[in-house]
Specification:
By secondary structure, this protein is mostly helical. The protein has one domain. It binds zinc ion.
């Protein structure tokens, strides 16, 4: 899954307090942001295989440290303690830490819907899971789009714009994400080697998070508005 992961970020931003939407974007792709560098280092592994599924061109060979269910919970736990520690002088630090951890762990469950059975429970030798919706590109695409738009709706209802940019930018951003995902799912791959693909993926994750950090300042929670006034 690609842009559908950001559904968790948008949907949970209303309960994430002062934690920026940008951090929640990084949390949603936390394990992928680790996976690509680890693959380049040879610690995890994927191969470029043209049309490996009807939607994707990679065979995910070895990723127990980032994409096993147990590893996902361990990373989420570390994120929880890190956020709680960093925000220790603020109210709701525990809740915000839990929200960030939940977004990290949501990655595995969303991946589970689309991946072919390549997501290990714990080690590479353990059972591998995945419902394989990537083999049905339209279904997989619509599922991601549905998650993203549903979550955007929750986000828009729970926040209000503080500037003209804040009024439309979240919607335009979501449309851009859907267009990029359409290209990703249905067009010829822009690169055909693991190194370029990894770099492109990381650049996308970081740029999307950059936009989300910017967007976060353009809309504020409605709840904060009423409790503040
Ligand atoms: Zn992933």
């Amino acid at each position: 899954m690609f842009v559908g992961h950001y559904a968790a970020s948008f949907a949970l931003k209303p309960v994430a307090g002062r934690l920026s939407l940008g951090w929640l974007f990084l949390a949603a792709q936390f394990v992928d942001i680790l996976f690509f560098p680890l693959s380049l280092l040879g610690i995890e592994k994927f191969n470029y295989v043209e049309n490996y599924t009807a939607s994707t061109h990679f065979e995910l060979v070895f990723m127990p440290y980032t994409h096993s269910l147990v590893a996902s919970f361990i990373w989420a736990g570390l994120v929880f303690f890190a956020v709680k520690r960093i925000l220790r002088h603020t109210t709701h630090a525990t809740r915000i830490g839990l929200v960030a951890a939940l977004v990290v762990v949501s990655h595995w469950f969303l991946d589970f819907l689309v991946h072919t059975p390549d997501l290990p429970l714990f080690s590479d030798a353990s059972t591998k899971l995945g419902l394989g919706l990537w083999n049905y590109p339209i279904v997989a695409y619509l599922l991601e789009a549905g998650f993203l738009l549903g979550a955007l709706f929750i986000y828009l209802r729970a926040t209000r714009p503080v500037s003209r940019a804040g009024r439309y930018s979240a919607i335009l951003f979501a449309i851009a994400l859907l267009i990029i995902n359409a290209i990703n799912s249905f067009a010829e791959p822009i690169a055909k080697d693991e190194i370029t693909l990894s770099i492109i993926a990381l650049l996308f994750y970081l740029s999307f998070a950059g936009v989300a950090f910017w967007l976060d300042g353009k809309r504020i929670p409605k709840a904060a508005e009423s409790s503040g006034g």
